[in-house]
Amino acid sequence: AQTVTQSQPEMSVQEAETVTLSCTYDTSESNYYLFWYKQPPSRQMILVIRQEAYKQQNATENRFSVNFQKAAKSFSLKISDSQLGDTAMYFCAFMKLMNRDDKIIFGKGTRLHILP
Amino acid sequence: NAGVTQTPKFRILKIGQSMTLQCTQDMNHNYMYWYRQDPGMGLKLIYYSVGAGITDKGEVPNGYNVSRSTTEDFPLRLELAAPSQTSVYFCASSYGDSAGTQYFGPGTRLLVL
Q: Which residues pair with B11 in a beta bridge?
Protein backbone atom coordinates (compact mmCIF):
# COMPACT_ATOMS: atom_id res chain seq x y z
CA ALA A 1 0.00 0.00 0.00
CA GLN A 2 1.12 3.52 -0.70
CA THR A 3 1.87 5.94 2.11
CA VAL A 4 2.64 9.65 2.17
CA THR A 5 4.61 11.21 5.02
CA GLN A 6 4.98 14.89 5.84
CA SER A 7 7.46 15.20 8.67
CA GLN A 8 6.90 18.89 9.44
CA PRO A 9 3.58 19.43 11.25
CA GLU A 10 4.05 23.20 11.39
CA MET A 11 6.41 25.86 10.02
CA SER A 12 6.74 29.63 10.20
CA VAL A 13 8.70 31.96 7.95
CA GLN A 14 8.92 35.68 7.39
CA GLU A 15 7.19 37.23 4.44
CA ALA A 16 9.35 37.30 1.28
CA GLU A 17 11.51 34.40 2.47
CA THR A 18 11.79 31.06 0.75
CA VAL A 19 10.42 27.98 2.48
CA THR A 20 10.61 24.29 1.64
CA LEU A 21 8.03 21.73 2.74
CA SER A 22 9.10 18.10 2.85
CA CYS A 23 7.24 15.03 1.65
CA THR A 24 8.27 11.42 1.29
CA TYR A 25 6.21 8.57 -0.02
CA ASP A 26 6.39 4.85 -0.30
CA THR A 27 5.26 2.89 -3.33
CA SER A 28 6.25 -0.02 -5.50
CA GLU A 29 4.72 1.64 -8.55
CA SER A 30 6.93 3.14 -11.23
CA ASN A 31 4.35 5.45 -12.76
CA TYR A 32 2.30 7.81 -10.64
CA TYR A 33 1.32 11.41 -9.94
CA LEU A 34 2.33 13.55 -7.00
CA PHE A 35 0.49 16.67 -5.88
CA TRP A 36 0.68 19.53 -3.48
CA TYR A 37 -2.69 20.86 -2.34
CA LYS A 38 -3.17 24.05 -0.35
CA GLN A 39 -5.95 24.46 2.20
CA PRO A 40 -6.30 28.06 3.44
CA PRO A 41 -8.42 28.99 6.47
CA SER A 42 -11.46 28.97 4.19
CA ARG A 43 -10.92 25.18 4.06
CA GLN A 44 -11.16 24.99 0.28
CA MET A 45 -8.69 22.50 -1.18
CA ILE A 46 -6.70 24.08 -3.99
CA LEU A 47 -4.29 22.30 -6.29
CA VAL A 48 -0.89 24.01 -6.15
CA ILE A 49 1.26 21.84 -8.35
CA ARG A 50 1.36 18.42 -9.97
CA GLN A 51 4.25 16.18 -11.00
CA GLU A 52 4.18 13.13 -13.25
CA ALA A 53 6.71 10.58 -12.04
CA TYR A 54 7.82 9.72 -15.55
CA LYS A 55 8.94 13.31 -16.13
CA GLN A 56 12.44 14.10 -14.93
CA GLN A 57 11.92 17.84 -15.06
CA ASN A 58 10.66 19.36 -11.85
CA ALA A 59 7.27 21.05 -12.10
CA THR A 60 6.98 24.78 -11.48
CA GLU A 61 4.02 27.13 -11.11
CA ASN A 62 5.05 30.74 -10.65
CA ARG A 63 6.52 30.98 -7.13
CA PHE A 64 5.95 27.30 -6.44
CA SER A 65 8.36 24.59 -7.50
CA VAL A 66 9.10 21.04 -6.52
CA ASN A 67 12.23 19.00 -6.00
CA PHE A 68 11.28 15.53 -7.15
CA GLN A 69 13.77 12.80 -6.28
CA LYS A 70 12.26 9.60 -7.60
CA ALA A 71 14.93 7.22 -6.32
CA ALA A 72 14.70 8.72 -2.84
CA LYS A 73 10.88 8.91 -3.07
CA SER A 74 11.01 12.52 -2.04
CA PHE A 75 8.79 15.34 -3.26
CA SER A 76 9.43 18.69 -1.57
CA LEU A 77 7.65 21.96 -2.30
CA LYS A 78 9.55 25.23 -2.45
CA ILE A 79 7.71 28.51 -2.10
CA SER A 80 9.76 31.50 -3.17
CA ASP A 81 9.09 35.09 -2.13
CA SER A 82 6.46 33.90 0.33
CA GLN A 83 3.34 36.01 0.77
CA LEU A 84 0.84 36.37 3.58
CA GLY A 85 -1.73 34.65 1.38
CA ASP A 86 0.42 31.53 1.36
CA THR A 87 -0.57 30.89 4.97
CA ALA A 88 -2.39 27.56 4.84
CA MET A 89 -2.22 23.83 5.40
CA TYR A 90 -0.29 22.11 2.64
CA PHE A 91 -0.98 18.50 1.76
CA CYS A 92 1.26 16.24 -0.25
CA ALA A 93 -0.63 13.57 -2.17
CA PHE A 94 0.00 10.51 -4.33
CA MET A 95 -1.97 8.81 -7.07
CA LYS A 96 -1.15 5.78 -9.18
CA LEU A 97 -1.01 6.42 -12.91
CA MET A 98 -3.64 4.74 -15.04
CA ASN A 99 -5.59 3.98 -11.94
CA ARG A 100 -9.22 3.40 -12.82
CA ASP A 101 -10.58 5.04 -9.73
CA ASP A 102 -8.22 8.05 -9.52
CA LYS A 103 -7.94 7.58 -5.76
CA ILE A 104 -5.55 10.00 -4.10
CA ILE A 105 -3.67 9.30 -0.87
CA PHE A 106 -2.98 12.38 1.26
CA GLY A 107 -0.34 13.08 3.85
CA LYS A 108 -1.31 14.59 7.20
CA GLY A 109 -0.32 18.07 6.15
CA THR A 110 2.07 20.85 7.11
CA ARG A 111 0.65 24.03 8.60
CA LEU A 112 2.55 26.99 7.17
CA HIS A 113 2.46 30.43 8.74
CA ILE A 114 3.80 33.42 6.80
CA LEU A 115 4.69 36.15 9.26
CA PRO A 116 4.51 39.86 8.38
CA ASN B 1 -18.95 27.32 -13.94
CA ALA B 2 -19.68 27.05 -10.24
CA GLY B 3 -17.37 24.03 -9.99
CA VAL B 4 -18.15 21.75 -7.05
CA THR B 5 -20.78 22.98 -4.63
CA GLN B 6 -21.72 21.50 -1.27
CA THR B 7 -24.61 22.08 1.07
CA PRO B 8 -24.99 22.72 3.93
CA LYS B 9 -21.85 24.56 5.03
CA PHE B 10 -22.35 23.66 8.66
CA ARG B 11 -24.70 21.37 10.55
CA ILE B 12 -25.19 20.18 14.10
CA LEU B 13 -26.74 16.75 14.51
CA LYS B 14 -27.87 14.85 17.55
CA ILE B 15 -26.68 11.28 18.02
CA GLY B 16 -28.88 8.91 16.03
CA GLN B 17 -30.20 11.52 13.62
CA SER B 18 -29.85 11.18 9.87
CA MET B 19 -28.89 13.65 7.20
CA THR B 20 -27.74 13.95 3.62
CA LEU B 21 -24.80 16.02 2.52
CA GLN B 22 -25.33 17.34 -0.97
CA CYS B 23 -22.67 17.63 -3.65
CA THR B 24 -23.11 18.92 -7.18
CA GLN B 25 -20.60 19.58 -9.95
CA ASP B 26 -21.19 21.33 -13.26
CA MET B 27 -17.99 20.33 -15.03
CA ASN B 28 -19.39 17.10 -16.50
CA HIS B 29 -16.85 15.07 -14.54
CA ASN B 30 -17.38 11.34 -14.47
CA TYR B 31 -15.55 10.75 -11.21
CA MET B 32 -16.73 12.03 -7.84
CA TYR B 33 -15.45 11.47 -4.31
CA TRP B 34 -16.33 12.02 -0.69
CA TYR B 35 -13.59 12.64 1.86
CA ARG B 36 -13.60 13.40 5.54
CA GLN B 37 -10.98 15.47 7.29
CA ASP B 38 -10.57 15.09 11.04
CA PRO B 39 -8.77 17.82 13.01
CA GLY B 40 -5.06 17.93 12.27
CA MET B 41 -5.30 15.12 9.76
CA GLY B 42 -5.25 14.64 6.03
CA LEU B 43 -8.23 13.61 3.97
CA LYS B 44 -9.55 10.08 4.01
CA LEU B 45 -11.69 8.68 1.22
CA ILE B 46 -15.18 7.57 2.23
CA TYR B 47 -16.80 6.62 -1.08
CA TYR B 48 -16.22 7.33 -4.73
CA SER B 49 -18.02 6.97 -8.02
CA VAL B 50 -16.65 6.49 -11.51
CA GLY B 51 -19.93 7.31 -13.19
CA ALA B 52 -23.68 7.46 -12.79
CA GLY B 53 -24.97 4.29 -11.21
CA ILE B 54 -21.52 3.14 -10.05
CA THR B 55 -20.21 3.62 -6.54
CA ASP B 56 -17.51 1.97 -4.47
CA LYS B 57 -16.12 2.08 -0.95
CA GLY B 58 -13.07 4.02 0.01
CA GLU B 59 -10.93 3.77 3.10
CA VAL B 60 -13.55 4.68 5.75
CA PRO B 61 -17.07 3.83 4.44
CA ASN B 62 -18.70 2.56 7.64
CA GLY B 63 -21.68 4.63 8.73
CA TYR B 64 -22.20 6.21 5.32
CA ASN B 65 -24.07 5.53 2.12
CA VAL B 66 -23.97 7.12 -1.31
CA SER B 67 -25.87 7.09 -4.54
CA ARG B 68 -25.13 8.43 -8.01
CA SER B 69 -28.24 8.72 -10.12
CA THR B 70 -26.90 11.57 -12.27
CA THR B 71 -23.49 12.73 -13.44
CA GLU B 72 -23.86 15.99 -11.54
CA ASP B 73 -24.95 14.84 -8.08
CA PHE B 74 -23.29 12.64 -5.49
CA PRO B 75 -25.07 12.84 -2.12
CA LEU B 76 -23.61 11.33 1.04
CA ARG B 77 -26.03 9.89 3.56
CA LEU B 78 -25.45 9.47 7.29
CA GLU B 79 -28.11 7.17 8.70
CA LEU B 80 -27.40 7.09 12.44
CA ALA B 81 -25.08 9.94 13.34
CA ALA B 82 -22.36 9.20 15.90
CA PRO B 83 -19.87 11.54 17.59
CA SER B 84 -17.07 9.83 15.64
CA GLN B 85 -18.57 11.31 12.48
CA THR B 86 -17.83 14.84 13.64
CA SER B 87 -15.59 16.05 10.86
CA VAL B 88 -15.29 18.25 7.82
CA TYR B 89 -16.56 16.58 4.67
CA PHE B 90 -15.24 17.38 1.24
CA CYS B 91 -16.68 16.41 -2.09
CA ALA B 92 -14.42 16.33 -5.15
CA SER B 93 -14.66 15.50 -8.81
CA SER B 94 -12.30 14.74 -11.68
CA TYR B 95 -12.37 13.91 -15.36
CA GLY B 96 -11.24 10.39 -14.58
CA ASP B 97 -8.89 10.30 -17.51
CA SER B 98 -6.00 9.55 -15.19
CA ALA B 99 -4.90 13.18 -15.40
CA GLY B 100 -5.14 13.06 -11.65
CA THR B 101 -6.38 16.51 -10.76
CA GLN B 102 -9.34 16.57 -8.42
CA TYR B 103 -11.47 19.66 -7.91
CA PHE B 104 -12.77 20.15 -4.40
CA GLY B 105 -15.89 21.72 -2.98
CA PRO B 106 -15.76 24.17 -0.05
CA GLY B 107 -16.56 21.51 2.55
CA THR B 108 -19.33 20.80 5.05
CA ARG B 109 -18.56 21.00 8.74
CA LEU B 110 -20.56 18.47 10.72
CA LEU B 111 -20.82 18.36 14.49
CA VAL B 112 -22.52 15.39 16.15
CA LEU B 113 -23.49 15.90 19.77
A: B110
Q: Is A20 exposed, middle or buried (0-12, 13-18, 19+ CB in 10 A)?
A: middle
Interface A:B, Cβ pairs < 8 A: 62
Mean pLDDT of chain B: 91
Shortest CA gap B91–chain A (Å): 10
| B22 strand-pairing partners | B7
Q: Give the separation between CA B77 and CA B17, rounded to whole angstroms.
A: 11
What's the pLDDT score for residue A59? 92
CB contact under 8 A, B104 and A45: yes
- Asked if the model's pLDDT at residue A65 lies above 90, the reply is yes
B31 touches chain A (CB under 8 A): yes
Q: Which of B41-50, B52-61, B96-105 shows the lowest per-residue confidence on average (mean pLDDT)?
A: B96-105
- CB-CB under 8 Å, B88 with A45: no
Whether residue A42 is predicted with pLDDT greater than 90 in this model: the reply is no
